[in-house]
Design brief:
single chain, 426 residues, alpha/beta, Urease, subunit C, domain 1, TIM Barrel, 2 domains, seven-stranded mixed sheet, four-stranded parallel sheet, 14 strands, globular
Length: 426
């Protein structure tokens, strides 16, 4: 199929230029002004909208196999496409856990059958994510983006050392949910504790995150493993990663839109604010923004984690951890960070596309003639309200519901195919 995408402001070679894009057989066939095609081609005029490299999320929970009532590969990847994403990495807290090639193949079959965008699954670090015995990492390595026990930190230092040595030998990263369970304590609002004390909430202390990162970085020094820190939420973790990079360690990290735009002062007793790690203080948020601007924070992931309405109906204390974000991440970040003059659109593209593509070897990260077409097209001047009731994801719990934002996704082209097109009246 041939598509002509006309009148775009195309992100190319770290800048923007007015151009049309011709797509043919899944490839960016040409890019320039006044392109023309003959009959049979589909032509779309975008009237100056921005064409960005397809967004890439290194941290999503697609829930299938095992928890299809929360999300499926189909619904989750359609949500991703609607948000401008053309590739995602899928976390392994599934049933069966992808801890052997046989178990991973169950997930890979579903992805091949149902995915609307590219999906790179993680294999687990330990069998059953139970933290006692290593998974069959060698067998899964050719098919996995890396190895993670997301949802739980690996508590055993000796086991994590072995995991890093194995991952190093296989050329794959360890993707760590950093959480020292011995340091968990009371206190949801982890700095001043006022909200937690008022509501009697069990929480997650900042030490539980950064102390395990500190331990793991010492193991990275020993093993030379590629190491990626998931959902960074504390100022101490930002400082540790900054020093590790200065030292030359092979370390990257991600944070999430909610940690960059919310603080514990924004909490209400609603399940859509319950996630792990929790939303922390203004001081932590400011440290994350500083890290984003100085290059310490490499990328932004949504940690899209859908649950049923019942599972999110218990307020902060009684709901399961996890919120959804694929369909609203870009407009939230574009509105708060770019229009808010905290960072540039070019830097946001790096954080949400180019950097995760490089780190995890994923398709995309740039719009280039002769390369597969992975493109998200956004009307950056279109203001709208986030309405979770209209999400394609089966999950509805998001702290951003009702926010007024800019940056509506008009079309997503994934591997040369139209994965999403906004057909609503503009």
């Amino acid at each position: 199929m041939t598509y002509l995408l006309k009148n775009l402001n195309v992100y190319y070679d770290r800048g923007f230029r007015a151009a049309d894009i011709l797509l043919s057989d899944g490839i960016v066939a040409a890019m320039g002004s006044g392109l023309f095609v003959g009959g049979g081609a589909a032509v779309f005029d975008f009237h100056g909208a921005a064409a960005l490299p397809g967004l890439i999320d290194p941290h999503v929970h697609l829930r299938e196999p095992g928890f299809e009532y929360k999300e499926t590969v189909r619904s989750g990847t359609l949500a991703a496409a609607r948000g401008g994403y053309t590739a995602v990495c899928a976390m392994p807290n599934l049933k069966p856990v992808p801890d052997t090639l046989e178990h991973l193949n169950v997930e890979l079959h579903i992805i091949a059958r149902d995915a609307a965008v590219a999906v790179a699954p993680y294999g687990s670090i330990t069998k059953g994510e139970a933290g006692a015995e290593l998974s069959d990492m060698a067998a899964m390595a050719p098919y996995a983006a890396g190895f993670s026990d997301d949802g739980r930190g690996v508590q055993s230092e000796a086991l994590m050392r072995r995991a890093m040595e194995t991952a190093k030998s296989l050329g794959k990263p360890i993707v760590a949910h950093a959480e020292d369970e011995s340091l968990l304590r009371k206190g949801w609002a982890v700095h001043d504790g006022a909200y937690a004390r008022a509501h009697g909430l069990a929480g997650n202390a900042p030490e539980s995150e950064w102390r395990q990162v500190e331990r793991d970085l010492e193991l990275v020094r020993e093993t030379g493993c590629a190491y990626h820190v998931c959902h960074v939420s504390t100022k101490e973790t930002v400082g540790l990663v900054r020093l590790a990079k200065f030292e030359g360690l092979d370390v990257t990290c991600e944070t999430a839109p909610h940690y960059l735009t919310l603080t514990d002062g924004d909490l209400s007793d609603d399940g859509r604010f319950r996630m792990n790690p929790p939303i922390r203080s203004a001081e932590d948020r400011d440290a994350l923004i500083e890290g984003l601007c100085d290059g310490t924070v490499d990328m932004i992931a949504t940690d899209h984690a859908p649950h049923s309405a019942a599972e999110k109906s218990g307020g902060l204390e009684g709901s399961l951890n996890g919120i959804v974000g694929l369909e609203c991440a870009f407009p939230v970040l574009y509105t708060r960070l770019v229009r808010g003059r905290i960072t540039s659109l070019e830097r946001l593209v790096e954080l949400m596309s180019a950097a995760p593509a490089r780190r995890f070897g994923l398709p995309g990260g740039a719009i280039e003639p002769g390369k597969p077409a992975n493109i998200g097209i956004f009307d950056l001047e279109h203001e709208f309200k986030i309405d979770s009731s209209k999400f394609l994801s089966l999950g509805r719990a998001t702290p951003f519901d009702g926010w007024s934002v800019y940056g509506r996704c008009l079309m997503t082209v994934a591997d040369g195919k139209i994965a999403w097109r906004d057909t609503d009246e503009q």
